[in-house]
Amino acid sequence: MMDLTFAVLVDGENASQAQYVSMLEEVEKYGTVAIKWVYADWTAREQSSWQDVLHETASSPKQQFHYGKDAADHALVMDAIELISNNQRINAICIVSSDGGFYSLAQRIREKGLHVMAIGKENTPERFRKACHNFVFTKNLSDPVTSLSHQDLNALLVDSYLRCAESNEPVYLGDMGKMLKMFDSSFDPRNYGFLSLKKLIKDKVELFDIVDEKVDQCFIAMRTSNTKASGTTVQGVIRKLDSKRDFGFISSNQGDYHFSFIEVKGNTALLKEGQTVWFKVPDIDSKKDLASGQCPSAKNIVLNKQQAA
Known about the structure:
With 309 residues, the protein is α/β, with parallel strands linked by helices. Helices cover 28% and strands 26% of the residues. A 6-stranded parallel sheet has the order 3-2-1-4-5-6, sandwiched between helices. Strands 12-11-10-13-14 form a 5-stranded antiparallel sheet. The protein has a 3-stranded antiparallel sheet with strand order 7-9-8. It is elongated, with a radius of gyration of 23 Å. The chain starts with a strand and ends with a helix.
C-alpha cells in the first residue's frame, strides 16, 4: 500500500475546534500529516475559540475576510487545487467539513489520482461522501489523547498500544513507536534509561508480552495475567480512565497499579477519576515490582469497603 502524506484542509467556519485534535489523530491512522491549514475569517469574534488549539497542534490559520458568500470555502478550494497540481510530496488530501459543496473538489482530487479523505457530520450530503475514498463521521472520532507527562510513562505506553490495537493485534512495535511520537513528539526511550523502545518494552513485563521477535521486527501484546485475586487488599484512587478502551490506573500509598475493566466487580459505568476503590494485589512479587518502578495489575476492584472485606 502506498504511503500517504496528507494535507489537512479545514473549513474552520463549519468544523468544531473541540474535535480538531481527534480529527488529526484520525488522519494520522492512515498516513503522515504534512500540512494543517484552517480557513476562516479570524477577525470574527466567534472564531476566537480556535486560537489555543491551532497553537497546540502547530496548525496554520488561513485568513479570509467575508468579502462574499463562502469566501473561506473558495480559498480552501483554490489552495487544494494548487497543492495537487504543484506539490509532489502531497498524495492525499483530507477535507474537514460537512458542506456538500466540496463534493466537486473531492471528485477533482480523486480524478487527479490522489487519495481523498473527509471528516464531517452525519448530515453531510451523500454526493460529497461518495466522492471520497474514505469519509469519517465526527461521531466516530476517538477522544483526543491527553497530554501525558514523563512521570506517566505507563499510561502513555498503554494508550499507544491500545490505539494501535484498534487496527491490528498483536501490535507491531514499529507502529507503536510512531504512535508514541504522535502522542508526544519528545518521547525518547533514552529519557527513561533505555537505548531502544524494544528494551523499554521488555522491561515492562507487567504490561506487555513479546509475541514474536525477529532481528528486523517485533510484535507485542498486552499481558494477560492468570494471577488469582487472593492477596493483600489495598485502597487507592482512580487517577486515569479510558472507558473506550476499558483500562485505567490507580494510585495508592504503595505505588501505581493498572487494571482492566473486567476486574471491576460492579457497574463500570459508575467509575470516575478521583474515585476511591479497593482492590487485591498478589502478595508475591508486588513489593519487588513497585520497588523497581514497575506497575503491577490490580485485581478484584470494588467500589465500597464492605465488598473488599
